[in-house]
Specification:
- The protein is an alpha/beta fold.
- Helix content is about 45%, strand content about 15%.
- It has one domain: Nucleotidyltransferase, domain 5.
- It is built from nine helices and five strands; from the N terminus they run αβαββααβαβαααα.
- Strands 3-2-1-4-5 form a five-stranded mixed beta sheet, with helices on both faces.
- It is globular.
Length: about 190
């Protein structure tokens, strides 16, 4: 568990104070609702690092202390957690963290913020927002891949890390900074 504890320690002490959060699961199973879906991968990114947390492995090896540290990271309102279209990610994280809801505890849904902008910023997808505001394409080819198969393929790892990292890049743009700062307590 040293790797997880080191990652959480770094993210809690990161001077940027913004963490991109994304989740991966087997979306096809979820869409067909054949079985209860399980969170397979949790991505946590700062400006300089991205951690991919294998939730399947963690469920089998984590002790109470590790879960407490993860929950504390999400509960800390001084650390801004940014995501995009948080509804499903919130459901996936519910067994592990007390709350991951937009507007609570430093959580910001960039889709909601972009929807409220009056400057024509599109919000149909994260890929469109990244292309429009950051100026490069964001491939979503791996989005519906099987996240329960181990080991993950290199393409899945790159996709997962990129998806979390672009959330931080977007949050640092002036048009999103006010919403992010407003989510922090005085």
């Amino acid at each position: 568990m040293d790797g997880l504890q080191a990652a959480l320690h770094y993210l809690k002490s990161d001077p940027g104070g913004i963490i991109g959060v994304d989740c991966e699961w087997n979306a096809d199973v979820y869409a067909r609702q054949e079985l209860p879906c399980q969170l397979a991968l949790l991505q946590l990114a700062s400006q300089t690092r991205c951690y991919l947390i294998d939730m399947f492995k963690l469920k089998g090896t984590a002790g109470t202390e590790e879960w407490r540290h993860l929950a504390a990271l999400f509960a800390n309102p001084r650390i801004i957690k940014v995501g995009f279209d948080l509804k499903q990610d919130s459901l996936m994280l519910k067994p592990y963290v007390a709350s991951y809801e937009d507007g609570k505890g430093g959580v910001v849904d960039l889709m909601r913020v972009a929807t409220g902008l009056k400057d024509g910023t599109g919000t149909s997808s994260l890929a469109n927002l990244v292309n429009q505001l950051l100026g490069y394409p964001l491939s979503k080819v791996e989005q519906r891949s099987n996240w329960e198969t181990r080991p993950l393929r290199k393409a899945q790892i790159v996709y997962a890390a990129t998806d979390a990292h672009v959330l931080v890049e977007l949050a640092l743009l002036p048009k999103f900074q006010l919403a992010c700062l407003a989510s922090k307590p005085g």
